[in-house]
Amino acid sequence: MKVVIPAAGLGIRFLPATKAQPKEMLPVVDKPAIQYVVEEAVESGMTDIIIITGRGKRAIEDHFDKSYELEHKLREAGNSEALAEVQRIASMADIFYIRQKEQLGLGHAILCAKKHVGNEPFAVMLGDDIVVNERPCIGQLVEVFEQMKASVVGVEQVPKTKLHRYGVIKGRKIKENLYKVEDLVEKPTPAEAPSDMAIIGRYVFQPEIFEFLERIRPGKGGEIQLTDAMKLLCRRKSLYGLKFKGTRFDIGSKADWVKATIALSMQRKDLAEELYPSPQAVLRRSKT
After folding, report:
1. Burial class for 56, CB neighbours closer than 10 Å (0-12, 13-18, 19+)
2. Which of 68, 90, 93, 182 is the most exposed place for a label (fewest CB within 10 A)?
3. Mind listing the pLDDT tens digit for each residue in 190-241?
4. Rounded to the nearest 10 degrees, how much is the dihedral formed by the CA atoms of 136, 141, 142, 144?
């Protein structure tokens, strides 16, 4: 199954850091955000990846490309650990790049991949969400897709105060953690929200989604909205919402990006003790 990763946005919420570099390349601990997403796809067995880019996104291509000069320097220095890591990054997937020439929305970005995807099911993964679990989030969605033979989106229970940041489903629970989506509302107020189950940046679609993306009219800001296409999809076909297992880090805002960096660094054995030492460790250091 192919994976589409939209990465053509301007990253306005992260200015000035994104003035001269892609938001997707901002580090979370010591890896660019987009690498977490690609690794999740690869861990799910999906190595045919399409990244939708735009102007100023060349750093993404360079990151996943082979770097002969860097490898030569690392080899000369005897830094085998770093050498193995940069070689792994360059070889872990077949990555193709498609330019979105105009900023016409997430739905339009996905439409840019239509010719490459063809008439096959495919996954969409957004870089604003990093999900940590032994079973990759997108792999969990693929399992449900194979069982139900229908499109499926990842959903998560979100506090009412944050529902205005998401698309929210109206759904009927059909089994544990699985909902049949009947409708959805984009960025509702707490009073408008049909539930507290929000759509996060993981989707597996039947190719019929392209038909609905081509049918809808531009919405706010003249953009083609994926949410509008999914509203048509769930009314005419089947769409499911999976409450996935795992911890999601939302890096769509500066505050949440900082929180994600802190949380993920705490999970790193090589960083946790130095950054967040135990009281005993602090006492030992104070005596030296």
Report:
1. middle
2. 68
3. 888 899 999 999 999 999 999 999 999 887 778 899 999 999 999 999 999 9
4. 130
Question: Residue 165's pLDDT band (boundaries 50, 70, 90)?
Answer: confident
Largest CA distance in the chain: 70
**Which sign, positive or negative, has the C-alpha torsion 270, 272, 273, 274?**
positive
H/E segment holding residue 184: strand 178-186
Q: What is the mean pLDDT of residues 276-280?
A: 60
Query: How big is the CA angle at 60 (ends 49 and 14), to the nearest 5 degrees?
Result: 115
The residue extents of the domains of the chain are 2-268
What Cα–Cα distance (Å) separates residue 252 from each residue in 38, 226, 255? 17, 17, 9
What's residue 288's pLDDT? 47
Q: How far from the centroid of its chain's Cα atoms is residue 107's Cα?
A: 15
Q: What contacts 229, CB < 8 A, 6 or more positions away? A: 107, 209, 212, 213, 215, 216
32 DSSP β-pair partners: 27
> Whole-model pTM?
0.91
Three-class SS state of 126: coil
Q: What is the pLDDT of residue 50?
A: 98
Backbone angles phi, psi at 135, to 5 degrees: -100, 115
Domain 2-268 has CATH 3.40.50.150: no
The tokens describing 136, both together, are 């990759």
